[in-house]
Design brief:
The protein has 307 residues and is of the alpha/beta class. It has one domain: NAD(P)-binding Rossmann-like Domain (Rossmann fold), CATH 3.40.50.720. The chain has nine helices and eight strands. It has helices at residues 18-29, 51-62, 77-91, 114-144, 159-163, 169-189, 211-216, 233-240, 281-292, and strands at residues 9-13, 33-37, 66-70, 96-98, 152-156, 195-201, 251-255, 258-262. An eight-stranded mixed sheet has the order 3-2-1-4-5-6-7-8, with helices on both faces. α1 crosses α8, α3 (77-91) runs parallel beside α4 and α4 (114-144) packs parallel to α6 (169-189). It is globular and about 70 Å long. It binds nicotinamide-adenine-dinucleotide. Residues 13-14, 16-20, 38-41, 43, 45, 52, 73-75, 100-103, 123, 156, 158, 200-203, 205-208 line the site of nicotinamide-adenine-dinucleotide.
Length: 307
């Protein structure tokens, strides 16, 4: 047990299972009081169950930590507000939001229907907005009233955003949106001393227990269990502490014993029209063809490189 988060109040969404559970326990072991916000849905987002959130609360209380449940749907703005209110009413403040809840409905772009796209954008991207926006509003009002504020926003993106995961157009788009939502929040809130960062984890959870990830993330017979979700949690706890106050507006790939800083997309090659005229299709083609003629038309799809 540490004390780097003593007195802090955290909400971890999707904390009933998988990564969120490990992260909530890590925060509680550092002294935070934690709202375990989880609907307890299945891997496609259906069939809510209060059991998983309650079990995590029981586990945290079992080692002397403080925690309570919240059963709202993260994709619902008003239910997210109710979860934030519960944190403030129960523990007297709000300091840390770990946005983590979500589910997948994978299909190729040509097979995906509107509901599959909307549901995944809603739970991930809108779910992040619902908590980030309302937490920032809470902190800004406190700061304007002359009160001290301590705020940490930790978002959950995915390497699906980095590599444009081929079978996950909804998920990859939501995770890309989460990165920029986090960057905007980082810029808006730095004047209040509030940080915002995103992690792209890898772990063996219900989300990854089928197909290629099930094989790649399998528990080894012996030695270090690289893809245990507990390996991601210390970095989330670290970002939540005062020690990480200088780190804001960054993305980190986190798994096993690795933390990788993701460089933000930056402008690359620039082309100028040296004629005293507008571009034409022909003059553009001359420049573009010279540059692109030796390049592949698309990069490979999402290829996870575990080692
Ligand atoms: N597992 C990985 O390798 C991996 C990789 C990249 C990103 N991620 C991201 O990490 C996060 C956690 O994923 P996980 O692997 O632990 O998955 P998980 O399925 O084990 O846990 C997700 C939790 O979110 C909850 N949840 C889902 N929809 C909800 C809603 N509308 N409201 C409240 N709670 C809801 C579920 O009940 C579940 O307990 C997700 O954002 C996921 O996209 C995971």
């Amino acid at each position: 047990m540490g004390n780097s988060l003593d007195g802090k109040v955290a909400i971890v969404t999707g904390a009933g299972r998988g990564l969120g559970k490990s992260e909530a326990i890590a925060l509680a072991k550092e002294g935070a009081r934690v709202v375990i916000a989880d609907l307890g849905v299945g891997k496609d987002g259906s069939c809510a169950d209060e059991g998983p959130a309650q079990q995590v609360v029981d586990e945290i209380k079992g080692f002397g930590g403080e925690a309570t449940t919240a059963y709202g749907d993260v994709g619902d703005y008003s239910e997210a507000g109710t979860t934030i209110k519960k944190a403030v009413d129960t523990y007297g403040d709000l300091n840390i939001i770990v946005n983590n809840a979500g589910f997948c409905r994978d299909k190729m772009i040509f097979n995906m229907d509107e509901d599959e796209f909307d549901a995944v954008i809603r739970v991930h991207l809108k779910g992040h907005f619902n908590f980030i926006s309302q937490a920032c509003s809470f902190w800004r009002q406190k700061a304007k009233a002359g009160e001290d504020v301590y705020g940490r926003l930790i978002s959950t993106t995915s390497e699906a955003f980095l590599y444009a995961s081929l079978g996950q157009p909804n998920y990859a788009a939501a995770k890309a949106g989460i990165v920029q939502l986090t960057m905007v929040a980082a810029q808006a809130m730095i004047k209040y001393g509030i940080t915002a960062n995103a992690i792209a984890p890898r772990a063996r959870t219900t989300m990854t227990d089928e197909g290629i990830t099930a094989q790649m993330f399998a528990k080894p017979d012996s030695g270090f269990d690289t893809f245990h979700p507990d390996n991601v949690a210390p970095f989330v706890a670290y970002l939540a502490t005062p020690m990480a106050g200088r780190i804001s507006g960054h993305v980190f790939v986190v798994w096993g014993k690795q933390v990788t800083v993701v460089d933000c997309p930056t402008p690359g090659e620039r082309f100028e029209n040296n004629e005293d005229t507008m571009w034409t299709v022909e003059s553009l083609h001359e420049k573009m063809d010279t540059y692109f003629k030796d390049k592949e038309p698309v990069t490979d799809g999402f290829i996870v490189q575990p080692f």
